[in-house]
Amino acid sequence: MSRQPYIRPLSKTTWYMRNGRYRVYMLREMTCLLVGFYAFLTIFALAKLAAGPDQWNQFLASQQNKVMIAFHAFALLYFLLRDVHFGSACRMRYLRWCLKCQSERI
Amino acid sequence: MNKRQMELEVMRYDPEQDDKPWFQNYSVPCEDDWAILDAINYVKENIDTTLSYRWSCHMMVCGSCGMMINGEPSLTCKTFIRDLPDKVRVEPLENFPVERDLVVVLDDVMQKLHKVQPYIIRKDDPPQGKEHQQSRGALAKFKQYTMCINCMCCYSACPQYGLNKDFIGPAALALAHRYNLDSRDQGKSQRLNILADHDGVWDCSFVGACSEVCPKHVDPAAAIQQMKIDGAMEFWKQKLGFPGGDS
């Protein structure tokens, strides 16, 4: 009898469509795009600040419109979602382990 | 006892006849207290004796009967009929080559389990004429990681292992962490050379699926994250000339 194991293919580009858990993970990791944007925004703001008060006020004015405010509110909610999913998972795991160790200690 | 008719959609693969797997339906009269494993055993005994699968204890101890139940890796002896819809799809564990029907090839994981040196390593001689002493607190640090039964559900849930077969993987890393945390062990820095390497803990992107599917609540994701901290601490200790972390 010959061995001929079948290897089921897993796409490197669409693997996260396999189940809901992976899709939530990808949504969580996509916050890196927002982090990148805020890093860029901070550098841009610092450059404007270094260029003088006129440039800085111009930058502040550019941020005070409905689109930017809606974007910042969306980003805040998205980061909170990430924190609930990732941060609480980490903390809960660590806390559970510490509590187990403490409860067994005599 | 009430009976319920259930449709089992089972993946079949015969390496001598089939080019690729296919699904076969079985109609099984199930009793309320049956697990999926009972339904599969019914098929084997009464409908189709050619069906191949692994099982042994039927009590969540041996870890042999891990399969995909409706797309979720789980122990078939722990997954009850009453919690499932009338139609259930049973497949071999994902991320492993299929040997035949529901049987997967586990050679790669066996090598990885061996690679992480899952045994107590001592640099000193063992105590003469008496046993190693260990407090309950010291035992509690690693006790949950001793609960692993090597069912490989975690490997099946891990997309990282699915995409990169060099990744050591959740169960082997949790097992290594179990020995790193053991107060009798002195092989932590020796083991970290393997675990903190490219295919070790740093390949884990913390999807966390391994811990969610673990039938014994071992929480391998926690073990891996703790080992990342250990690996980083050990790296800086070595850089700064402090003694290693072996107990």
Number of helices of chain B: 9
The mean pLDDT of chain B is 93
Largest sheet of chain A: none
Main interface: chain pair and counts: A-B, 31 and 38 residues
Give, in spatial order, the strands making up the sheet with the most strands of chain B.
2-1-5-3-4
Listing every helix as H and every strand as E from the N terminus to the C terminus, the arrangement of chain A reads: HHHH
| Total number of strands of chain A | 0
Query: What integer is the average pLDDT of chain A?
Result: 86
Helical percentage of chain B = 25-40%
Number of strands of chain B: 7
Q: Work out the radius of gyration of chain A.
A: 23 Å
Radius of gyration of chain B, in Å, reads 21 Å
Distance from N terminus to C terminus of chain B (CA atoms, Å) equals 57 Å
Query: Which band does the percent of strand residues of chain B land in?
Result: 15-25%
Range of strand content of chain A: under 5%
Q: What is the subunit arrangement here?
A: heterodimer
Poorly predicted residue ranges of chain B: none
Helix count of chain A, per DSSP?
4
H-E string of chain B: EEHEEEEEHHHHHHHH
Distance, first to last CA of chain A: 58 Å
Spell out the blueprint of helices and strands.
The complex is a heterodimer of chains A (106) and B (247).
Chain A: H1 20-29, H2 31-50, H3 53-63, H4 66-104
Chain B: E1 3-12, E2 22-31, H1 36-47, E3 66-69, E4 72-75, E5 87-91, E6 98-100, E7 103-104, H2 107-115, H3 136-143, H4 153-157, H5 159-163, H6 170-180, H7 188-195, H8 209-213, H9 220-240
Parallel strand pairs in B: 1-5
Antiparallel strand pairs in B: 1-2, 3-4, 3-5, 6-7
